[in-house]
């Protein structure tokens, strides 16, 4: 009965639950009904409130195999393989101009490279050639030794090729705007033929769009087979790194039967969408260097050096029954292990040309495998059908200890997270953030004692409302900084430049509010507890800013009345100076504490005067009830009673009331 109710739609569930409530109270229970409410009803309600997800891996796969782009890439690979002189080297490449409207660079490797791998070829090793992929999270990136060896073998030639291709990329860029409208029409037409594309949150749909875009407008295609495909992937990464300023014509990589080339750091590359890997369920090479792979028995390779492999990009997995696209790295990794361990006869040539021809024919009229009723969820049903399409039925998965339900649950959770993220687009978020910043500026403008002290004292409802603006802005910028840190260094630097001004204004406006909340709670030493995202925003700003010239200072002097204090930690220094003054005046201050506090105050004087000389502080610090003027009152009283006289530029500035002319 429980299972039957769980399968009922929401309307039927609504009819069943009142009967449960009647029985509940008939038994004399008087507690809150929600405490005894059946978990199945709650679960059903939560499920019905969620937007249903669908998986369209087969539809995307069929869309890709029916494009001419895949055929064009494979045709050039086969042409290069037929050239016997090309097979005399471990790896060889050729450039095809244009073919038919794409420039294609094809890589092939000698069959001996995969059939007789040398000891240690499956190891993951670091290389300075790919340090540009490093991020704050992944300080180093490891590459498959075999692929790296072949790439290094061609390195000098490829450096010249990159220069040669730069001209091709420039031509492609000039044609982009002319064909943008055609591209939009093509993608719309494709979506009408494959309506589930819009429902799938897990597929890297951008890869499919790039396939269509490349086919229409003619771009640079890097392709390769087997280990040649691994070299093609590495070469594409280098091109993407050097092609940052030309995002409309970035190269696209298509591989056939390529082994995995890297580990976790590579899998987190921001360029995943530019890679499409075609893999047959009869080809063991993609899993060649995995611990379960047939070619992975080299005795000198330690297990720990090979277990870090992670797929990256989109995988088009093919069988005689059909094809499907996946980009979930954990699922892909498990499937590659199964293929590698099950394919009989060791390493053998796979005819990808025949596979693609067969898939094109099947794409026109395709059958649907049956799915057990326990997968009533449309997303789960879709994944199961897609796995069966490429030859992975539930029995086979269980034989290899793959808990497909757990994998699907993780994929669905990821899909829902992505759906929520897409709902709140960057543009929408940015508009909301601008609104919150505008409200903060109005708050600052209308704060008589300065917005720092208004917020610290929390004297009105208006001050409390500002707290929500602060939370919203901080959450947004913490996410932005984390996003930048996940990018490779060069791409992260480009991204930082675009956002630097907005991030600096945010830091100067919001961090003082964080400082106010910090000291309002009676805490000390803010600088050692400062949020990491503020530190990074300041560090990036200081790397970019140039020392002010004399003309710049004159300009700042004229505008000083409307500026934000440049050092977002200014008020933290003020608060610590107040604490030092209070400590010096207390009876419990010992000699060592007194000396330390005095030294800190002298440094603070110098710091403040430097800020004033550079017109780097807002005139609001001199408002009568501000924390800075509170500090000055304490400090002036202390130095006037000191036995040793003390003078400084700041003391003269304050005692002469020169601040009245500031701004």
UniProtKB/TrEMBL annotation:
<dbReference type="InterPro" id="IPR029058">
    <property type="entry name" value="AB_hydrolase_fold"/>
</dbReference>
<keyword id="KW-0963">Cytoplasm</keyword>
<dbReference type="Pfam" id="PF18117">
    <property type="entry name" value="EDS1_EP"/>
</dbReference>
<keyword id="KW-0611">Plant defense</keyword>
<dbReference type="InterPro" id="IPR041266">
    <property type="entry name" value="EDS1_EP"/>
</dbReference>
<feature type="domain" description="Fungal lipase-type">
    <location>
        <begin position="212"/>
        <end position="289"/>
    </location>
</feature>
<dbReference type="InterPro" id="IPR002921">
    <property type="entry name" value="Fungal_lipase-type"/>
</dbReference>
<dbReference type="GO" id="GO:0006952">
    <property type="term" value="P:defense response"/>
</dbReference>
<keyword id="KW-0539">Nucleus</keyword>
<dbReference type="GO" id="GO:0052689">
    <property type="term" value="F:carboxylic ester hydrolase activity"/>
</dbReference>
<feature type="domain" description="EDS1 EP">
    <location>
        <begin position="439"/>
        <end position="647"/>
    </location>
</feature>
<dbReference type="InterPro" id="IPR044603">
    <property type="entry name" value="SAG101-like"/>
</dbReference>
<dbReference type="GO" id="GO:0005634">
    <property type="term" value="C:nucleus"/>
</dbReference>
<dbReference type="GO" id="GO:0006629">
    <property type="term" value="P:lipid metabolic process"/>
</dbReference>
<dbReference type="GO" id="GO:0005737">
    <property type="term" value="C:cytoplasm"/>
</dbReference>
<protein>
    <submittedName>
        <fullName>Senescence-associated carboxylesterase 101</fullName>
    </submittedName>
</protein>
<keyword id="KW-0378">Hydrolase</keyword>
<dbReference type="Pfam" id="PF01764">
    <property type="entry name" value="Lipase_3"/>
</dbReference>
